[in-house]
Amino acid sequence: MYATTESLATTPTAPGGRSRWAALYTLCAGMLMIVLDVTVVNVALPVIQDDLGFTNSSLAWVVNAYLIAFGGLLLLAGRLGDLLGRRNIFVAGLTVFTLASVWCGLAGSQEMLVAARFVQGIGGALTSAVILGMIVTLFPEPREQAKAIGVYAFVASAGGSIGLLAGGALTQAISWHWIFFVNLPIGIVTAALAIRLIEKDKGLGMGRGTDVPGAVLITAALMVGVFTIVSPAAELGWTAPRTIALALLTLTLLACFVVREATAANPLVPLRIFRSRNLTGANLIQALSSSGMFGIFFLGSLYLQRVLGYDALEIGLAFLPTTLVMGLLSVRYSEKLVMRFGARRPLIAGLVLIVIGLALFTQAPVDGNYFVHVLPVLLLLGLGGGICFPALMGLSMADVKPEDAGLASGLIGTTAEVGAALGLAVLATLSATRTESVAAAKPVLEALTDGYQFAFAVAAGIVAAAVVIACTVMRPARETEPVEEELALDAA
After folding, report:
1. Which of 22, 81, 116, 299 is nearest to 202 (CA)?
2. Where in the chain is the domain with CATH 1.20.1250.20?
3. What is the C-alpha separation between 408 and 397, in angstroms, rounded?
4. CA-CA distance, 214 to 75, in Å (whole number)?
5. 116, 420, 434, 457: which has the fewest Cβ within 10 Å?
6. Predicted model pTM
C-alpha cells in the first residue's frame, strides 16, 4: 500500500536511522503548532467575541479567514514543495505562521484579528502541505512508514488535547491574546531544528512544473468556493442569488482548471494522479469525514456552553478523552492494525465507530449528563478516528511517485480543509434553521438542543457516505498483508 520506491535525490533525507526519526519529530512539531492553534482558538471564541465586540455572524470570520487562506492555498503549497524543495516551503511556512501568530496576539480590533488570521492561514498551508510528503519519502519501508504515520497522527491528536487545555487555561488565567503567543517559541525552535536535521532538497525546479495559469485558477476556485460556503451560504442561505452566483463562478473556475491541466505541458496537478482509485477514494473519504467531525466539534462545544453551561476550561476538559484516545491508538496500535489487516479494514471499522458515536449524540437532551450523554460519544469518536485516520493517511499516499509526494500531501490536506469548511457551514446553517423553526413552540434551550440534534444526525449521514465509499471504492493493498516473518516478529 505505502510508497516503496527509494527516495530520490530531490526529496528530503536524513543521514541515519536515528536522524530520520529526529527529522520526523521536527515535522510533527510543525504539525503540532498548526493543530494547537485550531483547538486553542475554538475554545477562546466566546471570550474573543465579548472583548472585541464581534456579532454572532461576524465571529465566524475568526475561523473562516483562516480556512479560506488555508484551504485555498494547500494544493499550490504542496506542488511548490515538489518544485522548490519541501524543506524550503516548510521553513517558509513556519516563519509566516509564527509572525502572523504574534500579529494575532497583538490584535486590538476585529479587522486586525481577521486579517492576521488570513495571513496565519497562508503560513499554515505552506507548513502542513509538505509534511506528509516528506514523511513518506523519509520512511519508504512499509512497516516504518506505518509507524511514522501513526506518530504523525498521534501528534495531531495530542495537539488537539494540548490546545483544548491550554486554550481554556490561558484564556481564563491571563488573556485570549496569549493563545497566539504560544506559537512563537514553538515556531522558532521547530524552524531551527528543521534547518539542522532535514537535508536541503533541490526540488524539481520551476521549469519542471511551472503552471502559473493553473495555479491561479485552482487557488481562485478554492478560495471562492470556501468563501461561498462560509459566508453567503451560511448567512443568506443556499438558494440566495449571491450564493448561486458564487457557486457557479467556483464551478467555472474548476472547469477551466481541469481543461488547463489536461492541455498544459507541465501541469500543476497532473490528472494522471487521479487514476489511482485509492488516492481518489481517500480524498473523498477525507472530505466527508472532515465535514462530519469538524462541524460536530464546533456544534458540540456550543451545546456544552449554551445548553449545559460549561465554561472554556470545562469544554477543553470535556473533549480531552477524544483526543487522548485517538492519540493513543494512533501511536500505539495503528501500525499494528495496518500491518495485520491492511489499511482498508481498519479504515472501515473506524468510520463505522464514528457514525455510531454521532448517532448517539442525537439523543443528547437539554438536561444532559456528561458521563451518560457526552462521554460515550467522545470515546467512540476517539476510537474511530484513532483507527481510521492513520490508515486513511497511508492510503492517500499509496502508489504515489516520490516526485508527486508533495502534491498528494497537499491534496489530502486540501480536501480536509474544504470538507471542514463545508461541514461547518452546512451543519451550523441546518442547526440554526431547525432551531428557528421550532423556537415558537419550544423553550429556548429545547429549541437549541433540537437544532444541535438535527445537525448531529446529518453529520452521521455524511460520515456514513464515507463508509460506503470505503467499502466500494477503496482496494486492499497486497503490500500491507502480513507475512509469516512479520507475524513471528510481532509474537516475539
Report:
1. 81
2. 17-210+266-487
3. 6
4. 11
5. 457
6. 0.71
Burial class (CB in 10 A: 0-12, 13-18, 19+), 56: exposed
134 CB neighbour count, 10 Å cutoff = 28
What is d(CA 112, CA 284) in angstroms, rounded to the nearest whole number? 35
Instruction: Give the whole-angstrom CA distance, residue 220 versus residue 227.
Output: 10
The CA distance from 398 to 393, in Å, is 9
* Secondary structure in 3-state letters for the chain: CCCCCCCCCCCCCCCCHHHHHHHHHHHHHHHHHHHHHHHHHHHHHHHHHHHHCCCHHHHHHHHHHHHHHHHHHHHHHHHHHHHHCHHHHHHHHHHHHHHHHHHHHHCCCHHHHHHHHHHHHHHHHHHHHCHHHHHHHHCCCHHHHHHHHHHHHHHHHHHHHHHHHHHHHHHHHCCCCHHHHCHHHHHHHHHHHHHHHCCCCCCCCHHHCCCHHHHHHHHHHHHHHHHHHHCHHHHHCCCCHHHHHHHHHHHHHHHHHHHHHHHCCCCCCCHHHHHCHHHHHHHHHHHHHHHHHHHHHHHHHHHHHHHCCCCHHHHHHHHHHHHHHHHHHHHHCHHHHHHHHCCHHHHHHHHHHHHHHHHHHCCCCCCCCHHHHHHHHHHHHHHHHHHHHHHHHHHHCCCCCHHHHHHHHHHHHHHHHHHHHHHHHHHHHHHHHHHHHHCCCCCHHHHHHHHHHHHHHHHHHHHHHHHHHHHHCCCCCHHHCCCHHHHHHHHC
| Cβ partners under 8 Å of residue 352, min gap 6 | 384, 467
- CATH number 1.20.1250.20 is the correct assignment for the domain at 17-210+266-487: yes
Give the chain's length. Answer: 492
Q: 230 exposed, middle or buried (CB, 10 Å; 0-12, 13-18, 19+)?
A: buried
pLDDT digits (tens, 9 = 90+) for 388-425: 887 887 777 766 676 666 667 667 767 777 777 677 77
pLDDT in tens, 138-181: 877 777 777 777 777 777 666 666 666 666 676 666 777 878 88
Q: What is the mean pLDDT of the chain?
A: 78
- The cell numbers describing 222, all together, are 478554492
